[in-house]
Amino acid sequence: MRRLGERRGGTVERPETGARRGGAGGGADRYPDSIEGRSSWIAAAITTAILSISYGAPLIVVVGLKPIGASLGADRALVALAASLVWLGTGMGGIPMGWIADRIGVRPVVVFGALMSALGLAVSATGRVWTLFLGHAALIGLLGNAALFAPLVIYVSRWFDRRRGIAVALISSGQYVAGIIWPSLFERGLGHFGWQATMLGYAAMMAAAILPLALFLPPPPPPAPSRLAPSAPGLRIRARSLGLPPNLAQALICVAGFLCCVPMAMPATHLVAFCSGLGIPAAQGAAMLSVLFGCAFLSRVFWGWLADRIGGLGTVFAGSACQAAAMVLYAMLRNEALLFALSAAYGLGFSGIIPGYVVAIRELFPSSEASWRVPALLFTSTAGMAFGGWLAGAMYDSFGFYAPAFAAGALFNLANLLVIGFLVVRRAHDARLKAV
After folding, report:
1. What does the pLDDT read at residue 41?
2. Residues of 107-144 as b/e, b for ≥16 C-beta within 10 angstroms?
3. Could you report the per-residue pLDDT of 143-188, keeping only the tens digit for each?
């Protein structure tokens, strides 16, 4: 057996990259050093199921934006802020939760997150504005989804080295599976039982489903040791990323994540209310939201495949360009059929953005730093989601319609393309220097 750090064919074999070049078609016999196997896909499948359930929790407020606001006597922007703070709490809490999961294991952290999310829905259902905020921001976001999303993304990314882009795209699509399944069911539940009973019923179902699933998560694989010989010049490969100091490269990626997630949150949070304002029934708006998330789910494996071939940053740029075009069209269109078509196209286009960022972080930085770099990225991205959801509601309250909010979202997206474009150019320049 070849020892770690041993040269093969006169060159040093670098971690992860050598195996990935073979693409998705190779088997385990062709890649004897690959970590991927049956347990990898079991971990990915269970994680996708958990996230498909957990991301249903904040969708009740999204679907019930108008009736919940009317019941509490609150402005639309205030109720939308409660939903937005779930994203902020998820990102903020993901940083310590990723660190904790690295030390005590992912299973107890997932169990804790499921219980906190269920408790958050129960607290929110008590029928007061302050409990809605406490339940969503602190319990569902900071302690609930934060203990599920970031730790599980890191956990699954370590199970894959050849098809990491596809795997991360698959598990991230749990959010879209939730968007396919739950909005129409929630709309019916709100109509028949009211928003409080719907929250309580979903809280019980979520706890009952996620807790046993967590027990079937395979133990994570051991960290991959470095395969670089002590004298190899590649030991200094991480001194700079994209020709920049590593933390500066990380900061620029985080800024880009914030900028693209501001517009990303607007249709996801306000589509049902947007349709209602145009005279389109709420049931049709909920169906439109399901179409959006359904198309995002269908396209995500493609975006993961693309990320494995062109890299995370190139994938982000392509997805962000699609999102920018959609935001412009949302500001212009009013026809129901055209909005259905636009929502489908939007879902197909933007769904590779967040997995692309995660793949970019794993490409540019060592695996040992993933437990803080990935959550830091997810924090700034979810902060953008929180700000975008609130901003759209605030602009609606000021103007009485959503077109100005979507136009503002398009400007944020343009700024994102400038930052990501700069990083893509830096990567191409860095690759040329290494090839010389």
Report:
1. 92
2. bebbbbbbbbbbbbbbbbbeeeeebbbbbbbbbbbbbb
3. 999 999 999 999 998 898 888 888 888 888 888 788 888 988 998 9
Question: What's the full length of the chain, in residues?
Answer: 436
Q: 204-254, pLDDT tens digit by residue?
A: 999 999 999 999 999 888 765 544 334 334 334 445 688 889 999 999 999
> In the numeric block, which tokens belong to residue 285?
């708006």
Q: Cα–Cα distances in Å, from 394 out to 58, 65, 80?
A: 19, 13, 9
Q: Give dist(CA 154, CA 376) in Å, integer.
A: 12
Q: Rounded to 5 degrees, what angle do the CA atoms 118, 215, 46 make?
A: 80
Q: How far does Cα 289 stand from its chain's mean position?
A: 17
Two structure tokens written together for 214: 């967590």
In terms of Cβ atoms closer than 10 Å to its own Cβ (0-12, 13-18, 19+), residue 339 is buried
